[in-house]
Write a structure and sequence with these properties.
Layout (H helix, E strand, L loop, with lengths): L2 H37 L8 H33 L4 H13 L5 H14 L9
Helix pairs in contact: 1-2, 1-4, 2-3, 3-4
């Protein structure tokens, strides 16, 4: 495959990583908003310890969802900016995303296919 085609695939992979992982970031905001609304409905008689535990769990779940999407967005940005570190990060994000059916599987297969092509390392230089 020629360098021009590989460069187009690099750009497409970067955009796909950003878009699919931005969905995780939106999900983190939605989960955080859900917990905020739910937490505001607790009665005044709820103990401070129970409220603290609720907010700790809410922050933990929202934070985990946020942390699942952030590396993919960073890998996509790195690919668009031709950063060498984006190769390893996008491979890891693609491999982990294989379990995220259907979008993560498609992007993961595409990432693995892209880096299996001869000359794919040169498009990041």
């Amino acid at each position: 495959m020629d360098r021009g085609n590989l460069d187009n695939h690099r750009r497409i992979l970067g955009i796909c990583l950003i878009l699919t992982n931005a969905l995780s970031l939106l999900a983190a905001l939605a989960v955080g908003g859900f917990f905020f609304i739910w937490g505001s409905m607790f009665p005044e008689t709820t103990s401070a310890g129970d409220l603290a535990l609720f907010w700790l769990i809410a922050a933990g779940i929202s934070g985990c969802v946020l942390l699942m999407g952030l590396p993919g967005v960073l890998a996509g940005i790195g690919l668009l900016r031709r950063r060498k570190w984006a190769r390893l990060l996008s491979l890891i994000v693609g491999a982990v995303g294989l379990a995220n059916v259907p979008l993560g599987t498609i992007v993961g297969i595409y990432a693995i296919w892209f880096y299996a092509q001869p000359g794919s390392l040169e498009v990041l230089e």
